Amino acid sequence: MKELGCKEIQQICLEMLKALDAFAQEHHLTYYLSGGTLLGAVRHKGFIPWDDDMDLMIPRPDYEYLIKNFKHERYHLSSCEQENDYLSCYARLWDTHTTMEWDNSKALEKKIGAFVDIFPIDGYPASNFQTKIFLYQVKFARAKLNMKTKKDFFEHEKWLPLKKIVRSCLKKDGNYYARALSRLAMHYDYQKSSYAGVVGASLQHLFVEKNPKSVYENTVWLDFEDMKAPAPVGYETYLRQLYGDYMQLPPEDKRVSAHEFRIYLLK
């Protein structure tokens, strides 16, 4: 198997984006670049040079249609709702001609290849108090999922004895807790909410995902590598919320991938 470099992985992700874009156009689905991929479009007109995956987000109603209906001869879409061995609360589109090996991960993961993360956009409560309560519920649900899907804990993890006790009480499999987190994320109906965001985001971004729904209600098209890609009309608000001064480059020693995996070409 040939190990792929960052540029090669980016090219594979770009081709997956084009396949998903064609499906979205045909079926009249709304989706957007998100996270570091949207930041790359704005700051670099393409991938962040050192980024080795892709992030997209899609309103929950369109997300539900996508995970039930997307089919492609090369790319496979995995979600916890459609596959019992998939252990994340958001979907991944991945290339079946590649395979991925984690370097140091202690997490149980479905065997996939080069991937695109696809996050559903859900509703948020209007009040800050309700939002805080809701997100702590989400944080606890994600913690249960994380504990259940670990092969083992790292030696110096915070609250290690408590985590081991809690995990011993979790009797269902990882897919059950991924689905539970996905259902919780849908608690506030996207179509009826005045605020929205990616509820199932990483814990790092959990408390900064909430935005007025108007941020996501129209599409603008940005240059992304050799194509035009969709961004939410309020992308500046979104990026400022996540990254602060998002046009500022990080120090040179931070311009590396945050992921610990290797991608190999199978064919």
Overview of this structure, please?
Helices cover 35% and strands 21% of the residues. By secondary structure, the protein is of the alpha+beta class. It has one domain (2-265). Strands 2, 3, 4, 5, 7, 8 and 9 form a seven-stranded mixed beta sheet that branches. The protein has a three-stranded antiparallel beta sheet with strand order 1-12-6, with no helix packed on it. Strands 10-11 form a two-stranded antiparallel sheet. Helix 4 runs antiparallel to helix 6 (174-185).
Structural class: alpha+beta
Mean pLDDT: 92
Helical proportion? 25-40%
Identify low-pLDDT runs: none
Globally, the shape reads globular
How much of the sequence lies in strands comes to 15-25%
Biggest sheet features = 7 strands, mixed
> How far apart, in Å, are the first and last alpha carbons?
8 Å
Radius of gyration: 18 Å
Oligomer: single chain
Keywords:
7 helices; three-stranded antiparallel beta sheet; alpha+beta; seven-stranded mixed beta sheet; 267 residues
